[in-house]
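pipeline: protein-struct stage 2 | run 1193 | Small ribosomal subunit protein uS9
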Amino acid sequence: MEVRRNIDTLGRSYATGRRKEAVARVWIKPGSGKFNVKKSGSGNSNIQKEDNLILYFKRESLCQKVKTPFIQTSTLNRYDVTATVKGGGLSGQADALAYGISKALSNISPDLHSVLRSNGFLTRDSRVVERKKYGQHKARKKCQYSKR
């Protein structure tokens, strides 16, 4: 059985990452480590350099979370990343982007698949917000019980 690889005619590998309500569409290609992150639906959130990734995510911890798949596979500054993100908050978007990058790295060089799998980067975090139930204040918080 042959693994399906999403690589287009320009040599870019495509993958989609999801986390909570956030969705990241990721294209990576061999390059010098540039990040181009756009918020879907707006043309002004265009970050061109790796150093300016902090302009989009605002916190260094989120930038490190996005770069972690590259750091674990020793491929930092070897691939250019183009991504569009939508939905959710910044933390969910960072997780979705990291998951999409991991899947795209696995597509473009299958020998990295085992490293990414063993470090847990190819496992989807399926936790989502629990829905609110009727007759309750929140998802789990009940109304105050009155015995008499």
